[in-house]
Design a protein that fits this description.
- It is a single chain.
- The protein is an all-alpha fold.
- The chain has two domains: about 70 residues; about 70 residues, Winged helix-like DNA-binding domain superfamily/Winged helix DNA-binding domain (Arc Repressor Mutant, subunit A, Orthogonal Bundle), CATH 1.10.10.10.
């Protein structure tokens, strides 16, 4: 394994974007990112190389976030900028029809893994390859489940209209 400084330089942005997609709070995401690398330093001997370093770091980050959630017993949804590439995509149609809070509410009601994949894609700005790596699956798996999640989200939106 490379030095922790090199690992930090290579993976800090990915870990922080992943946490931002979970927390929807930039300060909290940065704080947990730092704690993730502190935890990684303490547990570096337990890394067995069976997964990518980024996957290992994101699993540490997710566990730290879950511990934070359990300790604080709250979910903070801040103003999250959600951007899309094209004006006519399914995502932009949903976003234009709903307020951000309503969209987050609908996303939160989706089952796993759809919810997490959509969070990672829209708010974490991660590629399908990065999402697949984080979740220990293939890029194609991430694409298919993102599409299925969008379909379910659209069905829920249409049902409420």
């Amino acid at each position: 394994m490379d030095s922790m400084e090199q690992i930090y330089k290579m993976h800090a942005k990915t870990v922080c974007r992943y946490l931002l997609s979970l927390t929807h709070n930039e300060d909290l995401a940065e704080e947990i990112t730092q704690e993730t690398f502190c935890q990684a330093i303490r547990c570096v001997g337990k890394y067995d190389g069976s997964c990518k370093v980024s996957t290992w770091l994101c699993s540490i980050a997710k566990n730290l976030w879950l511990a934070w959630m359990k300790k604080n017993k709250e979910i903070v949804i801040s103003d999250v900028e959600i951007e899309t590439d094209t004006a006519h995509s399914a995502e932009s149609m949903v976003i234009s029809c709903m307020s951000k809070v309503e969209l987050m509410r609908k996303l939160h009601q989706l089952k796993e893994p759809f919810r997490e994949i959509i969070y990672l894609r829209l708010t974490g700005d991660l590629s399908f390859r990065e999402i697949g790596d984080i979740m220990g699956k293939s890029e194609n798996w991430a694409r298919v489940n993102y599409f299925r999640g969008k379909e379910r989200l659209m069905k829920e939106v249409k049902k409420d209209e």
